[in-house]
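As a warm-up, study this chain.
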Amino acid sequence: MKASSDVSLDVNESNVFNFQVMACDGLWDVMSSADVISIIKDTVKEPGICSQILATEASERGSRGKIIVNVSVYSFFQASGS
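Now compare it with the structure written out below.
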């Protein structure tokens, strides 16, 4: 079993958020951390759909495993000076 963490991401220099992705191999077998971050970056303003979009993308990429995805967004704020 392996685990890695991508904790924080700067969306566009003015929006910053922290998130956690918990997912089965069905996601990680077909997507890299960079792929997942890219999708979250595009959907973070609607956090309720991040998990659904990631699961759909894994399925479309041909995942053969169980696809269970949970994305938790802990904070989303405008950086000062923006």
